[in-house]
Amino acid sequence: MNKKKCFISIFFISFLLFILLSPIRIIGAIQATITSCVIFQAFTVIMLSRYYRIIKPWILFVAILFGSSIIDIPIRIRYFEYTTLSFPEFVGRIVSIIIGYLVFSNYSANRIQSGWSATILE
């Protein structure tokens, strides 16, 4: 897989993940925030650990970040006062992607690929 195809596919996967998690907002803001934070952090770590050899991790980070917020950013800029109820979910998602990137960058790729049990036991 070449770099451009990898970037575009991760961008679209994170976009589709955002779309799939959107109906959870009907249940409640807190549930949507917790769910999207957990899923996007895990998604970020998994994608970075899988594709860091093909493309630089910070480029993958940008693809995930833009893919997950390509719809949110224009809407929040234009209609911010009407989107304040779901703003914590947006911030939580961005922070969880950043934390996923930091988790990946602080641990070696070998530890992440071998599983979480190795990092928990240390």
From TrEMBL:
Domain of life, per lineage: Bacteria
Alphabetized UniProt keyword annotations: Membrane, Transmembrane, Transmembrane helix
Membrane-crossing segments per the record: 7-24, 30-51, 58-79, 85-104
Protein's name in the database: Uncharacterized protein
Organism: Bacteroides muris (ex Afrizal et al. 2022)
